[in-house]
Amino acid sequence: MKFLSALLVTSVAALGFASTASADEVVVYSARIEQLIKPMFDAYTKQTGTTIKFVTDKEGPLLEKLKAEGANTPADMLITVDAGNLWQAAHEGLLRPVQSTVLNANIPAHLRDPGNQWFGLSVRARTIFFNKKNVKPEDLSTYEDLASPKWKNRLCLRTSKKVYNQSLVAMMIEEHGEAKTEQIVKGWVNNLATDVFSDDTKMLEAVGAGQCDVGIANTYYYGRLMEKKPDQPIGIFWANQKTGGVHVNVSGAGVTKHAKNPAGAQKLIEWLASEQAQNLYTDAGMEFPVNPKVKPDPVLVGWGSFKPNLINVSKAGELQATAVKLMDRAGYK
Amino acid sequence: MKNASPAASPVSAPPLRLPRIALARWLTGWRLAAFLVSLVTLVPLVVVLSSFLYPQSEVWNHLAEHVLPDILLNTLWLSLGVAFGTGVLGVTLAWLTAVCEFPGRRFFAWALMLPLAMPAYVTAFVAIGLLDFTGPLQTLLREWFGSSAWFPRIRSRGGVILVMSLALYPYVYLLARNAFMTQGRRALEAGQSLGLSRRMGFVRIALPMARPWIVAGIMLVLMETLADFGTVAIFNYDTFTTAIYKAWFGLFSLSTASQLASILVLIVFALVATEQRWRGARRYQGSGRSQATTYRLKPALGWTVSLLLGLFFCATFAIPLTQLVVWSASVFAEEFDARYPMFIWHSVLLSAIAAVLVVVAGLILSYALRVYRDWPTRFFARLSTLGYAVPGTVLAVGIFIPVAWLDNRLLAWLPQLGGSGGSVLKGTLTVMLLAYVARFLAPGFNAIDSAMQRITRSQEEAARGMGLYGWRLLAQVHVPLLRGGLLTAALMVFVDVMKEMPITLMTRPFGWDTLAVRVFEMTSEGQWELAALPAVVLVLVGLLPVMLLTRQSGQ
């Protein structure tokens, strides 16, 4: 009963008083889920004594929240997945440029904002997966090739509504121009073995079950699935190794424009990109470190090395709306 | 309800000579209370509607050409299908458990409410997990027959209609059952004595009498269907809501998204208004409860009904719950932590407070409508239930923008208010609870108002004759008579708030995570097995009010 009444008192207090920030505190808005960020924040607090308050939500509502709060936002830092979303935050004027030699040294140029408003912290590759029983790796080559007639009724894709596919198509537009990309996407749609899926995991399972022979997915979904059900006949193929390279994307962070503690937020981002924290940040989610000095998780090393596409990931944001319209025109649901 | 002229209202129409004084005189008492209640929904709605000030023709042209044609058709089919499905299921089941006697009736009477506690997106995920090509059933069929190509595709229009009907029928069931339970069985008996067969008694007497409740239930289902995003996203079935999200997250145009949402609201408003007119001017009168059921089914038929209901219960509740429990067991160790009691506490506390607030607000609206029958009062009362038809995320933004704006104004005048946190109102539970009221007034109001229409004028007049007026009349006469409706309203809102995601995510104070937030954390990366644990706990906690309601409403 005592416990209950104490809870009640704290709950009622929450009705009327908005909390106030202390000096040594960083407030984070995160579209990256709690289980992937909390362990690092706890480690950082232990190491530096800085307390971190965070709230999670989808990226769209978080950006609207920052916009509505304006100068009175409690947030010092924004974490989100996909360069498209990071670009959007910068584009809406919600972030501030950060001059940091540490970050410039630790993060390759194509994985951060040319205007220094956001920084990639982990890398995910979106590549081709195939059914080992029905496909030989030598049959595979590029994303573009999946539009050719030989894959008729053999291709599975996730919905075009997911930002990961929007970014992939945006990067193709940057590389090939709109007209050619539209032809490729139409080819994909013609080759579909079944309706597009609502998530990568389901799509990979369909490849494993032989509902289709090839599909495109993010590497960490494959990693998680194989960890749970290792006996599925799904192989990974690094796409476009003889051309532009595998499509990569990032999750990343930026300091908010109206941060109350910008220095604290910058320190936290620098720590997250450091050799010490990178594995903590990336391994839980089975992603690749952004910092070239850091070795990925052994499971990821086992998939072999690959050449990433070096176009700056901010293009994914710039061309996202163009990509969405193109996919609508091509009938990619 | 007949189209009442102002003369019919107890307050005669104000003279036009002194508009200001007249308005002040007009806007008093219950009218004022109803107007204040409706403000909670009106402000976010106006924010959403104001998007028409910022047209973006280029985005519109694209949507009109490539997206809208498909989507309108899809939405129409889904609405028709789910309205029909929930109507047939809800009415049939309500009739069986309310007035027929068969083995297991008492169990089914409350068991059939249980799917209310199961979020539709969870039902959808389980259905696809079990029935899709890679699911256990089709895998088994392939092992036996070598192919499962003949198996109907679950990820199809039929599939999404089926799953949503199975998830949402309890709304119709609850309201229809209330109607069948309390409506004049004597009227039915009278019908029988006049030689009407059972079937004719149902068609000619019971159905017409229960129509307003059935329609109110179907309206709730339609609003829920039109605002749904989670379920259709899992099926990848493109509806109006999908277009709204596409405009916002894909094409970066929140204003176009809001414009689409406004159109959705207007469509629903037209629906609600039509339903009101269509209800007609009937007066309903309950003849109290009778404990005896009217129709005792023959043993063979009775057992058949039991068997069918048993299968139905398995499909809608037992199997999904079992699947969730199996998944939970496999991830329990890594997902369960010491914070779970806290999540449960937050969920229950928020849902309970919101349920009480909505019931009070719904009662005020419903009573104001009873006292005043002029169009402005009716218009505002109707308008305030539309929050239920707006996709959650859009409404959340519509609520957050004015709150943040107000905060910024307050801090500009009185900087000392905010300390260093930069907020006065936002990040408080008050905002969160108001947002819930804005969203869930519809189920609360519909349940209460349906019950209100059963109280006869003569009952009121008798009480007035005894010198009861205003508050005391409401408290001593209406509230006891409305008990069933109030409980139904509280239950629906409690369970709805438990399942709610976007408003909870956007308006929760730091650290105020709930079970629904937990589900979001897992599902946003497609880790459904991990999400099973919070989902199971959510369902189990949601069962408590269902049990409570059953006990209260008697069998």
UniProtKB/TrEMBL annotation, chain A:
Pfam families: SBP_bac_8
Entry keyword Iron: yes
InterPro entries listed in its UniProt record: Ferric-bd, SBP
Keywords linked to the UniProt accession: Iron, Metal-binding, Signal
SUPFAM superfamilies: Periplasmic binding protein-like II
Protein origin, superkingdom: Bacteria
GO CC, any one term: outer membrane-bounded periplasmic space
Residues reported to bind Fe cation: Y220, Y221
Keyword Signal: yes
Gene Ontology molecular function: metal ion binding
Signal sequence, renumbered to the chain: 1-23
PANTHER family reported for this sequence: IRON-UTILIZATION PERIPLASMIC PROTEIN (PTHR30006:SF15), THIAMINE-BINDING PERIPLASMIC PROTEIN-RELATED (PTHR30006)
Family: Belongs to the bacterial solute-binding protein 1 family.
Protein name in the entry: Fe(3+) ABC transporter substrate-binding protein
Organism: Noviherbaspirillum sedimenti
Automatic annotation (TrEMBL), chain B:
Membrane topology summary: Multi-pass membrane protein
Annotated TM spans: 32-55, 75-96, 108-131, 158-176, 213-235, 247-273, 300-322, 342-365, 386-405, 425-448, 469-495, 530-549
GO CC term (a single one): plasma membrane
Coarse class of the protein's main subcellular location: membrane
Matching Pfam families: BPD_transp_1
Key word Membrane present: yes
Keywords: Cell membrane, Membrane, Transmembrane, Transmembrane helix, Transport
InterPro entries (alphabetical): MetI-like (IPR000515), MetI-like_sf (IPR035906)
GO BP term (any one): transmembrane transport
Domain ABC transmembrane type-1: 72-273, 344-549
Subcellular location: Cell membrane
Family affiliation: Belongs to the binding-protein-dependent transport system permease family.
Name this protein carries in UniProt: Iron ABC transporter permease
Species per Swiss-Prot/TrEMBL record: Noviherbaspirillum sedimenti
